[in-house]
Amino acid sequence: MSKDILNTLSPTLLMGPGPSCVPDPVYEALSKPTIGHLDSRFIAIMDEIKKQLQTLMQTGNKLTIPLSGTGSAGMEACFVNLVEAGDPVLILKNGVFGMRMVDVAQRLRADVDVLEFEWGTPVIVDAVKEKLAEKSYKIVAVVHAETSTGVMNPVGEISRLLEGSDSLYLVDCVTSLGGIEVRTDDWKADALYSGTQKCISCPPGLAPISFSDRAIEALKARKTKVPNWYLDLTMIINYWEGASRAYHHTAPINMLYGLYAALDVILDEGMENVFARHKETHEYLVKGIENLGLTMTVSPGIRLPMLNAVNIPEGADDEAIRTALIREYDIEIGAGLGPLAGKIWRIGLMGHTARKENVDRLLDALKALL
Ligand SMILES: *Cc1c(COP(=O)(O)O)cnc(C)c1O
Question: What is d(CA 29, CA 332) in angstroms, rounded to the nearest whole number?
Answer without folding.
Answer: 25
